[in-house]
Amino acid sequence: MGEDDVPLDDKAKRMRDLLSSFYSPDHPNSTSMSPKATSRFATLDTINTTSFDADQYMNLLVQKSNLEGLLQRHVEMAAEIKNLDTDLQMLVYENYNKFVSATDTIKRMNNNIVGMETNMEQLLEKIMSVQSRSDGVNTSLFEKREHIEKLHRTRNLLRKVQFIYDLPARLAKCIKSEAYADAVKYYTGAMPIFKAYGDSSFQECKRASEEAVAIIIKALQGKVFSDSESIQARAEAVMLLKQLDFPVNNLKVQLFKKLEEFLVDLHLESKEIRHSSSDLGGIPLSPSSCAHEASIREFAEAVRAYRVIFPDSEQQLFRLAKSLATKHFEATQQYIKKQLASADLVGMLRVTWTHVLLMDEVLPEAGLRDFTFEAAHVAIKQYVASRFSHLLLDFSGTLVKVHDNQKGVIEEEYPLQVALEISKNALVQGSMDALLDFRRLLDENLEVLSALTDLIIDWVQEGFQDFFRKLNDQFLVLSGKKYSANQDLIFGEGDKVLPGLVLLLAQLSVFIEQNAITRISEEISSLSGGGSRGHDNGPAFIPAEICRIFQSAGEELLQHYISLKTRKILILLKKRFTTPNWVKHKEPREVHMFIDLLLQELDTILNEVKQILPEGLHRKHRRTDSNGSNTSSRSNPLRDDKLVRSNTQKARSQLLESHLAKLFKQKMEIFTKVEHTQESVVTAIIKLFLKSLQEFVRLQTFNRSGFQQIQLDIHFLKTTLKDTAEDEAAVDFLLDEVIVAAAERCLDPIPLESAILDRLTQAKLAKNSEQSPAS
Amino acid sequence: MQGGSTGIGYGLKYQARCIADVKADTDHTSFLTGTLSLKEENEVHLIRLSSAGTELICEGLFSHPNEIWDLASCPFDQRIFSTVFSSGETYGAAIWQIPELYGQLNSPQLEKIAALDAHSSKIKCTLWWPTGRHDKLVSIDEQNLFLWSFDTSKKNAQVQSQESAGVLHSLSGGAWDPHDYNALALTCESSVQLWDLRTMKKTNSIDHPHVRNLDYNVKRKFMLVTAEDESGIHIWDLRMLKFPVLELPGHAHWTWTVKCNPEYEDLILSAGTDSAVNLWRASPPSGDKPSSESFDSPNRPVDPLLNSYSDYEDSVYGLAWSYREPWIFASLSYDGRVVVESTKPHLPRK
Q1: Is residue B121 part of a domain?
Q2: B13: closest chain A residue by CA
Q3: In-domain check, residue B348
């Protein structure tokens, strides 16, 4: 630090030199202190330091203290000095003793050392003589010792030779006593010698012992293969064989093959068991399966042994165990394909599981459980899927049967009703059976299954969802509404579809929507045990959606039925209106034949509808009560009006228009929504028919007779349709409309007198009633 | 019934079946209608939509000798149109010209330019060459198809070629392909027949019975729309005739007629005997698979039925899109009421 400050002016440097000479040179730090600092720090405490300056101290003391203080300080200091003096004296006395004793000790040491030199010389001499003596002894004994050692070596060699000569005999003895381990030990001991000298001196010996060893090997091999031996013994045997340089791998392969063969045999067996168990009516734990289990246990034992014997063969064994499980599942899958009852499936799974557990004990590292879980996962999923496809197949089979029955002439009174009941039952029963099966799966206390419970429930729900969707598709295909991509279905084109079947499907859809779905969803919700755990993953069974689908399907199918029927009637109508020349029509004599045909058609419709659809009485009342009566009362006078005067003037026709306008306030009533009741359907068909009739009439031009014919036909229809149609007002209105249309399209619209109309109608009715009992 | 009328009405004196857009009139949106009255004197009305679009004005009223069963306007001359008429047992078809000075005359007479008088059975309809100045005309009767060459200046029409479809088929109508002027689709009892006018031969047919009316999609090639008695509306791809591409529910009773919009490719209008006009948007699936998913409306993102105009008091037989303002259509119900509606509120925003 001082050096750093070198570049200072001379004055400062001199000052510092002075200071450093004043203070002791040992304290360069203190020298560097500025004088100001020294004076400042020169307090009264410096008395105890090395750099104590008495004069400075005195000055300081005088400066700082007053007289009293000084006096007191004086007294104190005197006392302190006295104390220090006594302390010094004490120190001198104490250390004096020590000095004295040290002096004594040194004196004594000097005395002792004097005699030592001579003693040491004597000792050296003696040791020298001992050494020379011992050398003498050594040289005299050397020769003998050499000899003895030579003799000893020879003896060892001889003993070895003796051992080798004795080896065959010894081995034979070992074979006799089955002490193969010793034999092997001996043989391996002799091996190096045989290797070195086997071709020359010990040829005989070598051959003999090799023969013996061959016997041993054979014996050992036998031991390895014999199942009766303990595993330990067999493992030992393998070890010995290994020591004898025997190709153990061959053995290993052979043994493994044996295991594999066992597995194959086992599965043949297991299949038989399946058969017998299913023959027994699905009781899986028959005595034969117990035997089967025993054999598996045996197999497991064998595997365990093999594993102990060949510890490096684990991978192979794992494979083997896995193949066992796979085989089980393959068999299961085959059975699943053959529409297996769930009890059987459970049985099979149980057997599989017990086997797997057995194997798992033996080979815990094989991960057989996980493997099984996975396989079971797949198998059960497959099972659920196949169950549903079977369900669909069964059900459509029922429908096909219905279809075929319809095709053929059936004498039954209510074929459709019967068919409906059958298919209803088939559906519900089928679904319930399926659910029962699944429930059985779920109730089973098997570890594999309980792990999959949630998944199974999900699958079942999905399955139902899918099933109903497919069913809907199938309905549409069956009804010819949907063009199925694969026309290999029994039902070909849309025109061949039987209306009865369509009606049946419609009603079935309603049944599904209103009844079956609720029942199934109840069952399903009871499956999941009230817990919602099945619902949070994946799309589950959504009854509302299915209901919606089937509701619309039901409506569509019903509509389709109506349109099918209407199409038939339309053909009738078309023929009726295109064949005759209406402008040259002859005077009407009776109600036209087509009315008969029409009524006949209506009868068949009625018959079909009555079998399947429920009655809906309440609607009829309401309709007639509310507006029916006043419509008919309005339309009737109009018709009379119109018929009498329509051919007169323009003004009249304008009046008619306004009337028509008023009338058509009701027009929305004509095409109302069709309901699933007998009346509603029949009425809808009649309405459509009448509307078509009106349209056909509008396309023609009539002469007076033609018009009158139409009038007569309608009059007749009026009396007959009254009973069948539900919406009387609308039907009446439409009938009037037909007559109005005919009048409009007539060149000379003069109506028949009502008396004649009545007479002809009566005649027709009489004729009909005459015919019907006759036929 | 609900909502009240949104359209502009116009009343004919008598019942009527046919209405046609006057395509050649590029200045106004106008329509031609003809009445169907057995006993009174029939009329042809030329109706024009006022420029504000709020009123239908009768531009011309001409008497027509017989009741009119079909009416078609010439695509290149607004004053020329053709009618199919009958009265009692007589029938005929003729090309008419509206007299030039009809504004001044009190009761102007239509000038009959040419009579299409080669037919031997009941004539069903006449079809003009779809667009442009081609003086070709097709007339269809129950069994035969006639191709006429029509000369405006000489005012006569000659049969260019003719072919019989066979007695059994009983043709009922047809449509001219706007994409291929040699192709024609005819409706008959049991099928839709596709004809080539060059060879005058049937090239193909769709076996689909009871087709009442059909129309080509003007914007999309190979798309044909048919209307049936019961089963509604079907859309066909002419390259795949086996199954319809799309099916629409149609009407509560017969679907009488369908018309494709000349501008908006998916817009279809249908009229039916249930006294309603339905506006559909039918986008056929782009894939080849014939889809009948129109049944399962839950699967469809949109309802194909855009609107149902039900404010009619009788069956609607006449229907025509305006070519000038393609969002406007005119409909004609049997009681003689013309209603012009704008479909604008239902059109997709562009």
Answers
A1: yes
A2: A654
A3: no
